[in-house]
Amino acid sequence: MAALGEVLGLVLRRQAALWTEWRPWLVLMGVVLPIGILLSHASRWWADSTALDMSLYIRIWEWSYLGYPGWRRDLFGIMWSVALNAAALSAWSWTCGYMLASVSRRTVWVTAMAFALVVFLATLGTSTVARITHDNFAGHFYGVVLPRLVRLAFVVLPLLWGIQSHRKSVVRPTMLLVGAAAVIILTVLVSPGLENSLVFGRGSFPDGGPDRTVGTSDDPRPLWPVAVLMLWPTAYILATIMPRRPRRLDAV
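Above: the chain sequence. Below: its structure as tokens.
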């Protein structure tokens, strides 16, 4: 036990020394806390809203309904929305992992654990307006289990993938450039849902705009800057892969 205590003390002292630099604190304050909180709300809200559709289709599903064009259109629309949300969560998380590995370096696993904790804990004590209430078991699965599975599959695992991608240098600059463009497009497409996760996702209703109807195109969007914040790691990646001009030597 004494030897184990000495080893743990050595590890803690080394970690404490690493945190005297500015890099880990930049990652903690600029990525882990703000983006972790946003991903926590987004993943919970999208899991809850998806659960409403899943519950409905499971309860009333009939294969013969696929013969109706309106049913197919609605079903494929929901599937497309779920795929976009999952892709956006994964892309944002991957870029965060890549930036964590690039900036925090030897403290990357500590910051990664902090990121995961923020994602899982930031919405504790809150609820959403998209909750299953018709069945206790279904309510527990859709309201508790499903959001955790979504966070594990589409936030934590892509985060670890991004960390490993940087550490092993397996992604070429060209692929990073293409991936950054894809992240920007995904962010534009899902940004209204991201904003809603902070409003509906905390059990409140926004202003319906001039037509007094929530969910229409004239609704105010005061939280649009959060989408820009989600692109902060992507902007960092782009900055690191841009070609740099060679320094000019002054003539002697």
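The chain has a mean pLDDT of 82.
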